Structure prediction request, 537 residues.
Amino acid sequence: MNSKWLGACTGAALFAVLGALPAPASSEPRPGPAHALPLGAAGLTETRGTRTLQPGVTLTRIVRGADAPALAWTVEVSIPGGVTSPDPDAPPTALKDRASADELAADLQEEGFDARVEEVTTPAVADFAGGTLGWRVRVGQFDSQSTGTSERTRLRGAGYAGSVVYTGWDGNPTDRGPWRIDVLTIDPDRFRGGLRASYGSDLENREKTSELAAAAGATAAVNGGFFVLDPSAGAPGDPAGIGVYDGRLLSEPVNGRPGLVMRGSGRHSAVTRLSWAGRAVGRSSQPLDGIDRVPGLIRNCGGTADDRPTSLPLHDVTCTDRDELVAFTTDYGRRTPQGDGLEAVLDARGRVLELRSPRGGSLPAGGSSVQATGTRVAELADLARVGRPLRIEGMLRDGSGRKVSPTPATSIFNGGPELVRDGRLHVTPATDGMVQSGNASFYYGWVHKRNPRTLAGVDNAGRTVFVTVDGRSTDALGLSIPESAAVARALGLRDAVNLDGGGSTTMVVDGEVINNPSDAAGERPVGDALLILPDRD
Prediction:
């Protein structure tokens, strides 16, 4: 293929309302300073154990607050708009204005439920001033999940919706834990293996991190970037942001969001913001909208000016665009997406073999294609001629506008928000689309509350560090995004970014999943993963 895959506002105002590690400690350097993590009350018990997985690679298990007393369960009731709400027709959410919360609590109390209203405030970060997010309504305090579930059943019988939650997930800074954190550190001065991002056999399907590790014979692996999960948002497994694999750009950035850039040697890893511009060049030149994704669906947004509802990043939202030009490689899958429009199919030399409509089908070995929808169909028809070359060109740039030219040893994962920059806390949920106007509940659940997390970054010694944090259980509380940043800095990271977390958070060592993935079904299939490969002979 003849192509270049080069690879402050306040919350109130904006929202309007392993068991033990099996080996003894090693003499290899541990990640960052050895002082206690800034989690919970001072003086909590904290244990650390480190072992060497291969030269230049260490695994550290940190457990903090293992002896913490259990906290209460409660039922968090969904709040409808209510007659006092600024928008009485709004769907039920976890947080609302004070009047709507008071109205719901009064109704619940009249029906005999032990209801209370709680104000939710969140700390300020680099691009969001924090403050009051809203008010929540909760019922009861219970010593077990099963007792809380029984109360939820009673609430449902009375016509109310809600969920059973553990109060340790709220993010109260005085909580005593427990927290369980695993840290992989790659020291490039000792490392003789390889760092590689893998998406498996194709982009449009998901694989478990453990499966990707086994297929490559990896010593260790960690889940990677955000990806499409819902078929209505694109192809499940497709990266929802930048994806560079073996130096080839196979998924365009959510423009301006951060990515983790790595080299196979483990040297010169970096967290940087990335943007991209691509074009198809034939009889004329036309700008591309994307690479290897379903035309018209832009997961996490951050695309072109005609995307709706926005061209800015908007996390966990699928923007749309009826008029797109999207390039495809054979890495996408067995067949390109089907639908109305036009597709120029190219051979391995970049010459147009056929123009097919409707679009969708197999590609020749080493070939590629360009799909057009809506008004872009006429543009592609004018651009491409059977038997003539059609070049696919693209350029990555960093946040300073400098050209980024991946080599075959380069991998890039998408992520967000930033957590640490130049050794200082630098949390950027507004810039990266996690602050959503009129939807305080999203920030509450995604940023403010504790969840499982996967973090990555680089320390002052140039070591690449990956961190998984278990959560959504009583044995491991997880971290809020601000807590994640504090932990990353405490581990000595100079620059750090949040990767995909929640049920995706997975760490594999020597073929075994060593953390506790939070999905009820166990380990979640993901879009891509970081692989630490054994020493080269």
Summary: The chain is about 10% helix and 35% strand. The mean pLDDT is 92.
